[in-house]
Design a protein that fits this description.
This protein is about 75% helix and about 0% strand. It contains 15 helices and no strands. Helix 10 runs parallel beside helix 12 (about 195-205). About 40% of the residues are buried.
Length: about 250
């Protein structure tokens, strides 16, 4: 069983007291891949109190499920869900942080202006929160409208300027590494959705003398979507990056 709708059907037949045991049994953990289809199905149908309970769980998979579910609560108008997600964005567990990005995407699926309102409040916070913002907005299905794609580029530009201004001590932190890794693919998603604006911004960063910023540009140049968006612009960007390293 792997389909989201199948998991939803099973969950809806279970007594409420058996949901967490079922989630744990079917989580796929320990293992290389958690059961995201089940986690998303849970987020679709779980009662709000159970979503909040799972979001606060010490169990990584249950907390992942709860984080994704908070995205649905945001869509439904629960103003407290955003604050809980903001805290979970800095969780030590990477799967929980992924759940936060997925929650933001769920909000964007329903209401892009509401997503941008959250992003504006979070975009200048710490590196893990900024990583959640970048991963949340850099989902191709959310960037079909030109104004949304352009806004994503602008947000990434804002976050990358923070990377460039980070002191050397802070760059040794795990949080900085996580943000840098995220930006290493997020830019390619946004640029592919808004190539005219995006390549111009990325070329600016390719000229930076900051080695971490240049690393971000280099990693995005490895992504096929960037070259499909505009092959000649990608070639020019690579040339700018190579020249800046001389």
């Amino acid at each position: 069983m792997g389909k989201r709708s199948d998991y939803r059907a099973v969950l809806e037949l279970l007594p409420p007291g058996e949901w967490t045991a079922y989630l744990t049994a079917e989580s796929g953990l320990p293992g290389p891949r958690g059961n995201l289809e089940l986690a998303v199905a849970f987020a679709d149908v779980a009662e709000p109190d159970l979503v909040r309970l799972c979001a606060g769980s010490p169990d990584e998979y249950l907390a992942l499920c709860g984080a994704i579910g908070l995205g649905r609560l945001l869509v439904e108008g629960d103003s407290d869900a955003a604050a809980t997600l903001r805290a979970l964005a800095e969780d030590d567990r990477w799967r929980v942080r992924e759940g936060v990005a997925m929650a933001l995407q769920r909000l964007g699926d329903a209401d892009m202006p509401a997503l941008w309102a959250v992003v504006e409040r979070w975009a200048d916070d710490g590196p893990l929160v900024q990583r959640a913002v970048a991963a949340g907005i850099c989902e191709p299905r959310l960037l079909g409208a030109p104004e949304d794609a352009t806004k994503a580029v602008e947000i990434l530009d804002r976050i990358t300027s923070v990377v460039e201004g980070t002191d050397s001590a802070s760059r040794r932190s795990e949080q900085f590494r996580v943000l840098r890794q995220g930006l290493g693919y997020c830019w390619s998603v946004a640029v592919a959705a808004a190539p005219v604006t995006g390549f111009g911004h990325l070329a600016k960063w390719a000229r930076s003398q900051d080695r971490d910023v240049r690393w971000i540009v280099r990693e995005n140049l490895r992504k096929a979507r960037l070259h499909r968006a505009d092959p000649s612009a990608a070639e020019r960007l690579a040339a700018v990056l190579e020249k800046s390293a001389e």
